[in-house]
UniProtKB/TrEMBL annotation:
Name of the protein this chain belongs to: ATP-binding protein
Family matches, as InterPro entries: HerA-like (IPR008571), HerA_central (IPR002789), P-loop_NTPase (IPR027417)
Catalysed conversion reaction: ATP + H2O = ADP + phosphate + H(+); Couples ATP hydrolysis with the unwinding of duplex DNA by translocating in the 3'-5' direction
Composition skew (Basic and acidic residues), residue ranges: 546-560
Organism: Haloplanus salinus
Domain annotation Helicase HerA central: ranges: 176-390
Amino acid sequence: MSSLGSETSTEDGGKELIGTVAGPGDDPNEFVVVTPDDQAVKTGEFISYTVPVDGTGREVIARVTNREQARGLPETFMADPNVAPEAVASTLGVPTDDIDLYRLEATVIGFYDTGMQTFSNPRQLPSPGTRLWTAPNEMLEAILPNLGVDEQEATDANGSVDLSRINVEEREGLAHMGWLLNREANAVDVHIPIDEFAATHLAILASTGSGKSYTAGVLMEEMMMPDSRASLLVFDPHGEYSSLSEMRGNGIFASDDYHPEVEYFTPENLRIRISELNVGDVMSILDNPSDRMQERLDSGWRAMQRRESRTWGIDDLLEEMRDQYGDDDSSVGALEWRLRRSIQRNDLFTTDVNVPLDDLVAPGRCTVLQMDTLGRRDQQMIATVLLRRLYQARLAAVRGRGDEEGYDGEIIEQPLFALFEEGHRFAPSTGEAPSLEIMRTVTSEGRKFGFGLGIISQRPSKIDQDVLSQCGTQVTMQIQNPTDQDAIKNSVEAAGEEVLRELPGLTPGQAVVSGDAMNTPVLIQVRERHTTHGAGSIPATSQWKQAHEQRNEQPGRTESADMGGGESTGEEDLL
Ligand SMILES: Nc1ncnc2c1ncn2[C@@H]1O[C@H](COP(=O)(O)OP(=O)(O)OP(=O)(O)O)[C@@H](O)[C@H]1O
């Protein structure tokens, strides 16, 4: 490795001199850097240079987007793998010092503007000859995520702005997701503001096995820390989050006055009161009701909803429809069969039990709805009814309806965050799902009412595009499928070319974080979980072997398997 001239190449704070600007690049925002250093600068690295802006020297950050060799030893020197190219060079008397030269392309991100609290593009490329440095670790920690660092915090005792002096770890309400992939582990820790993604929603998108639920687990752990004490609700269609209960006894999550609560609900205690369904929900679960049936159901259902009692059932509804249309109406007869089969005989629905929302959600409580024993339609139904009730309860709280005389509806005073594994199941891009409408409502309006959603999915192209495009923060992991990459391109505003280019090459645990929680997209390594990950793949070969050994140990099994001995040949069992 060679140094740039005779100057020392490093400064305090891990800032390293890496090269010199050669000139502008192909795009207006791009420039070219020549660097002799073949180790320090990888694609994706953040580099910096200083330019005068309004009379003040500003440290501008740029991202390296491409790296190629500009000069090196001739390829013929590498023809024999048994002989080092340097040995060939020395035999031929060719000097090898300072021979390697790299050409980097970099895109300007901007300088951090403490007034605007985000990056500002100086709209001026560095002049040829400008010296480039790796951006300092502490500064990157403070300015890559959207932490709203302001001038007061960033100003040192001499009155100069110094972004490296911000101690991110002292700030509250941040989720430590991991660290910048291009730097050493924990050199640049990435802490994202929970308030941002809890308000404007979150999407975690990746192919299966890339680390979506692991990352969701990391974020939930962070949200349940003493300085956040979230009110979380997890819709868990596969029962993947049972290990979150480990947070209860783990000191990392506790403080003098706080221990996180983790509660599990199963379908047995999540029954849906029939009167909570609206007529659209019912239509979606009935088998192809005709127009006449729909008309009768609509009228009957509305009449039932006007009643004071909330504990009516299918018999009461049928009686109402018969009152309206007569005892012999054939459409009511056809509806009876469908209603009894889809609702009355389904244990999920009941006339009177309704889990109080206060039992379900509370500050400092993570509630996991374990729905793995239910079919897709029943899972959607639970999500529909719960989301609708929670949304109404938040709306009532924000609008101060609790103080109104005569208001007897539910109220949830604290903001909520609901996380959906298999998000495409609840907000699908095609086909009917009763939950789609309320998912759209919460993602478009929830911000105003303190109701955030997190959508996890391995098939971004199968998520309703309105819902996906409302997820302001995105954690995107490995995705190779071109249709899913297109869905991300079309719905994720922050997903520029550089983000999309990264996706196929990521390995499990690596992610691009972009959107509202960030000032610019970054590639990170997600940190390890404090709780056990509950969703690993099942190791088939060891489990087959173990199961087979156990089977052999069963006395009856070995005897009947031994066709040569004992009284049974096993043939009797077949007769
Ligand atoms: N940040 C990480 N650190 C360590 N291991 C990780 C990390 N992220 C993922 N893994 C490993 O990768 C495996 C797959 O992760 P995970 O179960 O979260 O994938 P997934 O995308 O949710 O898959 P699926 O779609 O099948 O649910 C896990 O078993 C876990 O061990």
